[in-house]
Amino acid sequence: MIDYKKQVNDNYTLHLINTTRFKQINISVRFTKSYEKNTGAYLKLLERILPFNGTKKYRRIKDINKKLESLYRTSLTSTFFCLSKNMTFEINMGIVNPKYTEDTLLHDSCEMLREILFNPKIEDEQFNGEVFEIEKDNLIKSILNVKDSPDTYGRLKFEEKFLSGTVYAENNYKNIKLFENLENKELYQIYKGLFTDYKVDILVCGDFENLDIQKEISFVMKDVKQNDKTNKDLYYKIKKKEKLEEKESMQIMQSSLFVGCTIDNLTEEERNYRLILYNTILGSMNNSVLFMNVREKNSLCYHVGSYINRFTDTIEIESGINKKNYEKTLSIIDESLRNMEDKKVIETNIVNAKKTIEIAQNDFYDNMNKIMTYYFMNEFTNIPSIEERRLKVKDVTVDEICELAKKVRLSYVFLLEGVNEKN
Q: What is the rounded CA–CA span in Å between residue 77 and residue 85?
């Protein structure tokens, strides 16, 4: 099990997540503030540059890697991501538990973490110019290459319209001009702002001594000044729309169909427990309603599944189809949504769905990233514990699922149409 303690300091919040399930200790430093499109573009580039820029002590990436190797292959990664209305820049360090190595490993690794975070090689208030240009070019190429993955590109175009007015409607491809105009000096200013203008959370997960880790984290973060500018209400209200269908053609062999469903007046009880079970039955388990209706009974698709977006109260359905099957597939998806109001359909599937969720919940304690994400998210919104969700989902009834199904309405359809398909 997990022993969790939270320590709120003036300049950061420390989350101590003690568990004996792992032989590694992860230290995640997360800087969070309200989403800003321009700043987010710079942080997306910073995630590529910071680990490779070099530092005052380790001038080249070769020197950094050599030092990490000497620390029993300690890993160091940086990541930028959005959590609804907030954005986060993260530095994560994975350390072999010092119980299995030298006693000094924790301190030496934290020294390295501090070196990467606070002492990058800077000249004329800029990062290494060569690294900047190479990584900026690589980032732009990776963004433009999204079209090489039609499913990913289709989802971006779908969410631009379906989730318009939210951060989910923004994407790197849509905002490519921002990345093309990024400047080195401005990147350095954005970097410096991490230590003065953000909410700062440090999450430590693994088997460790609390006093030792507190001392080391205090050493690493001594130069940080926290300034909480985050959103604590992460939920968007998606405006109800009349059903809208749109298409875009692409030189591909297979079409991708995306269907967006809004949910009317979702309660907390429904959002936290019943919606998980509803969606599992609809399209996220073996023999789901969508899988059986669209693929098995009618052979209309290559794949089909459904996904919840918690912070917009929406469900997204995705399917790979032949364009000639578009109208029929959409009709069967619509019919499947109505099937979810049928008690006989839910009775047939509810036991298997609860078992599927139980298996997924069991995985929580063996996944360090899921554990840290749960405690981090609770800084901004109230999400029930895995044990509370486990008990509550078990008690969800057939009638409750059917009542929830009446609130789900098909709102937006986007087809990325493959023009090279064989009839």
A: 23
